[in-house]
Write a structure and sequence with these properties.
The protein is α+β, with helices and mostly antiparallel strands. The chain has two domains: about 120 residues, Rossmann fold (3-Layer(aba) Sandwich), CATH 3.40.50; about 160 residues, Tumour Suppressor Smad4, CATH 2.60.200. It is built from nine helices and 17 strands. Strand 12 and strand 13 form a beta hairpin. Helix 1 packs parallel to helix 5 and helix 2 runs parallel beside helix 3. It is elongated and about 60 Å long. About 45% of the residues are buried. One of its GO terms (biological process) is phospholipid biosynthetic process. Its cofactor is Mg(2+).
């Protein structure tokens, strides 16, 4: 019998797991797993518990949103355990699940974990901490963690749209960045910057599948320049809808190591959670660092 650590964030999403929790645990139990259930109590609690105990288990599973997954991944990597990870997405946006086409129905997700195989997945390292799919700064980057949890639970993804609408006036504000990608300097003024390993950002920006591989040891750098007039604003919106990420407003670059320097502290988000304010960050890809079951 294999041992499973099952970490659940009870505050994530709209609690789609509550009514099916026993069914999910039964699926794992019927597959001959001895399940230890842990309900997180506060922010970073899941990370601390996984960091302390992951090496004593054969598999770790987490249920929550992108932030919960971020905590568990950081816990596994800080523990140094070579343990596969299963994910049941019950958060609000679930960008990571979108990229991997993971089921949002808890029972189905659990069955896929039981039937699936672990595959290597790239992880990003941001000044010594890890992110699963995106590090971002600038316009709208703080929407996910500045949106109240109660609003997320009540309205789902629309809560982000409500919060984002309040910030739309900031779209013409940009900031100078010294950007270095694999040794090449790409400097300029931008209103948004994302370093990602994902097909979806915030449920709004979608990367073409032929542009992104989630296990190739490469990160995508998306830099958006602030539109200066209504025509440029229209062109930006159209480019985002049409997934045109190489034009005079949007630039997409690929790289393994990215350094971002700014004159003023910029607020960063890591997987939708606050990453603090920084003037100098170094981001590296960790190729196939996590073994994800799907």
């Amino acid at each position: 019998m294999q041992k499973m650590l099952f970490v659940i964030n009870p505050a994530a999403g709209r609690s789609s797991l509550r009514d099916t929790l026993m069914s999910v645990v039964k699926i794992f139990s019927d597959a001959d797993y001895l399940v230890t259930l842990y309900i997180t109590k506060c922010s970073r609690d899941g990370q601390a518990q996984v960091a302390a105990w992951a090496h004593q288990y054969d598999v770790v599973v987490c249920a929550g949103g992108d932030g919960t997954l971020n905590e568990v991944v950081n816990g596994i990597l800080s523990n140094g355990a070579d343990v596969p990870l299963g994910y049941i997405p019950v958060g609000t946006t679930n960008d990571f699940a979108t990229s991997h086409q993971l089921s949002r129905i808890p029972r189905q997700a659990a069955q896929h974990i039981v039937d699936g195989q672990p595959f290597g997945h790239d992880i990003g390292e941001f000044n010594g901490v890890y992110f699963t799919y995106v590090a971002a700064c600038g316009l709208f980057s703080d929407v996910s963690f500045s949106t109240p949890q109660a609003l997320k639970n009540a309205f789902g993804r629309f809560a982000y749209y409500f919060e984002g609408a309040r910030k739309i006036q900031e779209i013409t504000q940009d900031f100078p960045l010294n950007l270095t990608v694999d040794g090449e300097e790409i400097n300029g003024k931008y209103c948004f910057l994302a370093i990602a390993n994902s097909l979806s950002l915030g449920g709004v920006l979608q990367f073409p599948e032929n542009l992104v591989s989630l296990s190739d040891g490469i990160l995508e750098v998306l830099a958006i320049r602030a539109p200066q007039n209504p025509i440029e604003f229209h062109n930006l919106m159209r480019a985002m809808v049409e997934k045109d990420y190489n034009n005079n407003l949007i630039r997409c670059i690929h790289g393994k190591e990215i350094r971002v320097q700014s004159d003023i502290p910029l607020a960063w988000t890591l997987d939708g959670e606050s990453g603090g304010e920084h003037t100098d960050v170094t981001i590296r890809v960790c190729k196939q660092q996590i073994r994800l079951i799907y």
